[in-house]
Write a structure and sequence with these properties.
binds nicotinamide-adenine-dinucleotide; single chain; 2-enoyl-CoA Hydratase, Chain A, domain 1; 8-stranded mixed β-sheet; N-(1-d-carboxylethyl)-l-norvaline Dehydrogenase, domain 2; alpha/beta; 3 domains; 17 strands; 6-stranded mixed β-sheet; 736 residues
Length: 736
């Protein structure tokens, strides 16, 4: 390769873009943001792009361009969103978006072919950059992911994505991508028409060079927004043609947009403004033209960046990025290597833990259950997940088989001696868990870390049976383990820092967002969930209808309502934990007395098909479940609809928030950050509210305290605001 760069680029350790021209006349633009592990698009790039464009224009030897990343495993992961945080008005953001549009338009209008050669993450602004190229090739590597995930931050693709994507892959397909933020691997991207070719990583540069030259020699033609040159007719299936037919008439498009809007409104319940704005951008672009579409995109992008919802979602993004780097231990403390993991109990949780340990963390897993049935359950559970992946073509049979082979089962302790970490997920009994601990200490000769997945028993109590309590810790996973992102690590006064460091690293390897909390009844998450669910119970006792309670909390942004949750988790589990929490924290943690009638009536919820809702009939029946009306007679309640949804949600929310503040006040939580992420990732606290602590900040502690005082007068002690809140209200302080 001959170098054809100006001096600035030659000694250019500080620039992100470099241009080298090879002897075939291909200009290779390498993006390599200095000092960072992955490329993100920054505002400063405008000047760099400008410089490169000028170089390209002034060099007649260049016949085609290839844009490639200098990072080993990533193309461009998106825009650097911290640059958005420095902007203070909609107009400023709109201006920034317009500058971006100009650059991408310039790239798109170059008179020579431009090939994007993509390996690794190609997301957000990275994908928008590649959409401005004439041709896209990506690799089949598992790290290659293409998508526009802006919606997950409450934003929209502001770099022309809402205009270029629908023109490339169709309106319905583009809306699907932009409204879900889903990321496609190479194969799926090719199928959708998002990329032109998929090749092995080792072949990327060669294939890109060939494509570039073929484009120059017109051996390849491209469908471009600017110069549509081929008809796709013959390439499409009947279903795709039907979709296309719908998209080619204004009437047909209206049907698509109306349907999309109806679906997002149902899903967001009006809590997230970005999906509707994404639809609007596409609609304007399709009906009024590309320029009008871009104009709308910049304007609505400005509105979203300045919205409270996006600001909270970006806060969550920063907090979870921060947590990824946090070791939770003092400097210099080293984690121990983990190769083999033992899991005790092959039930719902044990199986899930085994799966993520083998699949995500890549460790060997040995499962022990008291009987064959338990072992088989766990193995079947794991294989079912793989079977689904194979069915959906996310994995080959070979790959799945290889990973599954890392999980083995037994009803004895055979194979446990060499496990460096053992996680117990047996029944919720202190005695049983202590027995497990003693067994493991003896089998591993004191070498293994013993972790409990208990949801309510204090780890300190379990550790009382230990010869070496420094090796005892809580690893609290959430169900279903392979989907729920949080791991709450619970440490006692005696847990050693090495053990904490090891488990934090292990949890991250399992793909979890990890928080570390101090031991105490219910730790953090179970403790703040209890008063939230109890409050719904109190309102039910007051006569608020069950479905009304659930709807109110779903409207407020929770994924499920509190009564449905009780049915799902098990009413028996709830009634078992409540007295334990009440013993530690007083009567404020007790559910209404009439709930004891549920136990007498053998109502355990979904598991025995006797709960607040009806479970008879086909599980596949669409639509919401029906309330089992007989429960009102059982409880002696006449349901009414007098209370507003907002009032219902407020009472539950304030209970959860106040308990979260108590956890911080008592040192269970280390920081508001951990509390916010724990509530959102573990319990589904509405992300757009930012978590309990961000919510207090947004409302002001004084207004929260005032409301709690009013409710305390009405309903008693359980609404007494935490002292920390009262102090903050008095001094006008915030958590962040
Ligand atoms: N289910 C949840 O949502 C959830 C969430 C977080 C934590 N937890 C906690 O996880 C633990 C397990 O819960 P689960 O829902 O998986 O229960 P589960 O009933 O589905 O599974 C428990 C398993 O432990 C096995 N077991 C019992 N005694 C054993 C022994 N002596 N040796 C080996 N195996 C034994 C049982 O045979 C069973 O397979 C409990 O402590 C629970 O509180 C549950």
């Amino acid at each position: 390769m001959t170098t054809n760069t100006d001096s600035k680029v030659d000694n250019e350790s500080q620039t992100a873009f470099s241009l080298q021209v090879d002897d075939k006349g291909i200009g290779w633009i390498t993006i390599d943001v200095p000092g960072e592990t992955q490329n993100t698009v920054k505002a400063e790039f405008v000047d760099e792009f400008d410089r490169i464009f000028k170089q390209v224009e002034s060099d007649n030897a260049i016949k085609a361009l290839i844009i490639i990343s200098g990072k080993k495993d990533g193309f461009v992961a998106g825009a650097d969103i911290s640059m958005l945080q420095n902007l203070t008005s909609k107009e400023q953001v709109e201006e920034l978006a317009k500058v971006g549009h100009k650059v991408f338009n310039q790239l798109e209008s170059l008179s020579l072919p431009v090939v994007a050669a993509i390996n690794g993450a190609c997301l957000g602004a990275g994908l928008e950059l590649s959409l401005s190229c004439s041709y896209r090739i990506c690799t089949s590597a598992s790290s290659t992911k293409l998508g526009l995930p802006e919606v997950q931050l409450g934003l929209l693709p502001g770099g022309g994505g809402t205009q270029r994507l629908p023109r490339l892959v169709g309106i319905a397909n583009s809306l699907d991508l932009m409204l879900t933020g889903k990321q496609l691997n190479g194969k799926r991207a090719k199928k959708l028409g998002l990329v032109n070719e998929v090749v092995a990583n080792s072949n990327l540069m060669k294939a890109a060079a060939k494509a570039a030259l073929d484009l120059v020699n017109k051996k390849k033609i491209v469908v471009s927004r600017l110069k549509p040159e081929v008809s796709l007719g013959g390439l499409l299936s009947a279903k795709e043609l039907q979709k296309l037919a719908l998209e080619t008439t204004s009437f047909g498009r209206k049907i698509i947009f109306d349907k999309a809007l109806e679906t997002v409104n149902k899903k967001t319940r009006g809590n997230y403004p970005s999906p509707a704005k994404i639809i609007k951008c596409v609609q304007v672009g399709m009906e009024e033209g590309y320029e009008a579409g871009l104009e709308t995109e910049a304007k609505l992008f400005g509105e979203l960046v300045m919205s409270e919802e996006a600001s909270q979602l970006m806060n969550i993004f920063f907090a979870s990025t921060d947590l990824k780097k946090d070791t939770f231990v003092s400097d210099g403390i080293k984690s121990q290597p983990i190769d083999r993991v033992g899991v005790l109990g092959g039930g719902l949780m044990g199986a899930g833990i085994a799966f993520v340990t083998a699949d995500k963390a890549g460790k060997k897993v040995r499962i022990k259950d008291q009987n064959e049935k338990g072992v088989n359950h766990a193995l079947k559970y794991c294989w079912e997940i793989y079977r689904n992946k194979i069915k959906r073509k996310h994995m080959t049979v070979n790959d799945a088989g290889q990973r599954f082979a890392a999980i083995t089962g037994t009803t004895s302790y055979q194979g446990f001696k060499r496990c460096e970490l053992v996680i117990e997920a047996v029944f919720e009994s202190l005695e049983l868990k202590q027995q497990m601990l003693k067994d493991i200490e003896s089998v591993s000769e004191g070498n293994a870390i013993f972790a409990s997945n208990t949801s309510s028993i204090p780890i300190t109590q379990i550790a009382e049976a230990a010869k070496d309590p420094s090796k005892v810790i809580g690893l609290h996973y959430f169900s279903p383990v392979d989907k729920m992102p949080l791991l709450e690590i619970v440490i006692t006064d005696k847990t050693s820092e090495e053990v904490i460091a090891t488990c934090v690293e292990f949890g991250k390897a399992q793909g979890k967002t990890v928080i570390v909390v101090k031991d105490g009844t219910g730790f953090y998450t179970s403790r703040i969930l209890a008063p939230f669910v109890n409050e719904a119970g109190h309102m039910l006792a007051e006569g608020v209808a069950i479905d009304r309670l659930d709807k109110a909390l779903k409207d407020a942004g929770f994924p499920v309502g509190p009564i449905t949750l009780l049915d799902e988790v098990g009413i028996d589990v709830g009634t078992k934990i409540a007295p334990i929490l009440a013993e530690s924290f007083g009567d404020r943690m007790l559910p209404p007395k009439l709930f004891s009638k549920l136990e007498q009536d053998n109502r355990k919820g979904k598991k025995n098909k006797r709960g607040f809702y009806k479970y008879a009939g086909s599980a596949k029946k669409k639509g919401p479940r029906e309330v089992d009306q007989s429960i009102y007679t059982l409880l002696g309640v006449s349901p009414n609809n007098n209370m507003s949804g907002d009032a219902i949600a407020e009472r539950c929310l304030l209970q959860m928030i106040n308990e979260a503040v108590l956890c911080l006040q008592e040192g269970i939580l280390n920081s508001p950050r951990d509390g916010d992420i724990g509530a959102i990732f573990g319990l589904g606290f509405p992300p757009f509210l930012g978590g309990p602590f961000r919510y207090v900040d947004s409302q002001g502690a004084a207004s929260i305290v005032k409301r709690m005082n009013e409710l305390e007068k009405q309903f008693g002690e359980r609404f007494k605001p935490a002292q920390r809140l009262v102090d903050m209200a008095a001094s006008n302080k915030t958590f962040y």
